[in-house]
Write a structure and sequence with these properties.
The protein is α/β, with parallel strands linked by helices. 54% of the residues lie in helices and 14% in strands. It has one domain. Strand 1, helix 2 and strand 2 form a beta-alpha-beta unit.
């Protein structure tokens, strides 16, 4: 029992979510952390990166609309919804994973591949 409690506390410390509410809406900090960690882990496993993925994220509840502000790394929710929150975390975690350097590398590779292919119709000319 003690081991489980310590493991849970350790996982919660890894979460980096700053939650605020414009109104009086309540939320479960442990559920926010659990969804955050699960979404980050899913992105990390899906895209095979070995680095621990824990982007700092702000969650604003009682927002005027459900949205993700990628520049501010903020998830806006009208009310707590674990699925919408997980979608926002996936978007922001992927943005964190795909650094500007990786974007350039992938872009350059795509352009090189495009230049290396030849249309069959062009070969006969």
């Amino acid at each position: 029992m003690l081991v489980v409690a310590c493991a849970s506390a350790s996982c919660a410390q890894e979460a980096v979510v700053n939650v605020s509410s414009k109104g009086k809406q309540k939320w479960s900090a442990s559920e926010v952390d659990k969804v955050y960690l699960s979404a980050c882990t899913a992105v990390q496993r899906e895209f095979g990166d070995s680095a621990v993925l824990r982007p700092p994220i702000a969650l604003v509840l009682d927002a005027d609309l459900n949205a993700v502000d990628r520049d501010k790394k903020t998830i806006l929710l009208e009310r707590w919804d674990r699925t919408l929150f997980a979608q926002g975390v996936v978007i922001l975690a992927f943005d964190d994973l795909l650094t500007p350097q990786r974007r350039r590398t992938i872009t350059n590779r795509a352009v090189s591949w495009a230049q290396a292919t030849v249309d069959v119709a062009e070969i006969n000319k």
